[in-house]
Amino acid sequence: MAESCVAIINGTIFTGETFVDGKALLIKGSRVEGLLPPDKIPPEADIVDAMGNYVAPGFIDLQIYGGGGRLFSAETSEVSITDIANALVKSGTTSFMITMATNTMAVVNRALETLSEYRHPALLGLHLEGPYLNALRKGAHPEAYIREPDQSEIAGLLKKADGCLRMMTIAPEKFDKATVDLLIDHGVLLSAGHSNASYREAMTGFGQGIRAVTHLFNAMSPLHHRDPGLPGATFQSDSAMASIIADGIHVDYQVLSISKKLLGSRLFLITDAVAAVNEGTYIHVFKGDRYTLPDGTLSGSALTMMQAVANCVRHGGIPMDEALRMASLYPATFIGADDLGRIANGTVADLVIFDNHYTVRQVFLKGRHQ
Questions:
Q1: Could you read off the pLDDT of 139-182 as tens digits, one per residue?
Q2: How far is residue 130 from each of residues 10, 100, 171, 229, 341, measured CA to CA in Å?
Q3: Where are the chain's structural domains?
Q4: CATH number assigned to the domain covering 59-335
Q5: Where substrate is bound, by residue (predicted)?
Q6: Are 241 and 330 in contact (CB under 8 A)?
Q7: Which residues are designated catalytic?
Q8: 300 labelled ligand-binding
């Protein structure tokens, strides 16, 4: 069977580096073939008109719990994750790590069993946020399920995961180097979060291989002028990246702007989005622009990645090209995916087409028009 051939015309193409006008974007199969003049489009190509809108790399969300009205931790089934994935793709997120917050080990094990055998073209794997956190910075995580790191228990989780566990948020002050090494040796990307780490403890963690910080400023030791904490260590690190929730609620937009100026390409966007549920470990109550626990504790966002990009531009003073990189190129860099987050010869044809109002108009997933 011949590979499909698609040409996207009449769009402003953002390659991950720059905006390009007057060119067609050619897709063959699941990959970008390149940019070319419209009069060089192969005759066999199916034409897609971008209608003057922007064409950009699909968004990459490394921390999202649900979508399409479903929360994965509340229903750890293939049906649930499929509904979540399909809803995310429609919103422009073409790669994501389904995330599970601190929960019972029975629920974690069920999630690992489901994901170890499940495949979806947008799913990158599981981001396990907890349970090895610091209860002093638990946020919405139930303290009853927060655990001390146990190397044998973690080894068991890794075996059960069979490679689907791609990322873990941990409190670095709770981990010794041997346990950090165990996770890294199994290909798990480590991020510091829900942590009361001092500046020194955080820098030690970065030196041991923790490569990022989870939802900067939220649920962590604060930046204080006499104790810089985890945020201060992040700013002073030469390499640590950080995710941030750009909804104006989890962090003020001025803090977003300051963080961007300090971190540059080390800052990337996540949604931290959940779904409304009224039973299970997490009861998420929709409050119009956010989710909370029944007691009012902030428990997740109502963001999409498209909205996060728009907020960066409209409220954070961040240029559109850089906001788009924060939603695609920089998370791709963090996970080591050279063929994601850019539009160039040979990259994966994950694309989002959006208008001047930051409304998603069309999406391509692995070269297929959604």
A1: 999 999 999 999 999 999 999 999 999 999 999 999 999 999 99
A2: 46, 8, 8, 20, 27
A3: 5-56+341-369, 59-335
A4: 3.20.20.140
A5: 140, 218-219, 226, 250, 298-300
A6: yes
A7: 272
A8: yes
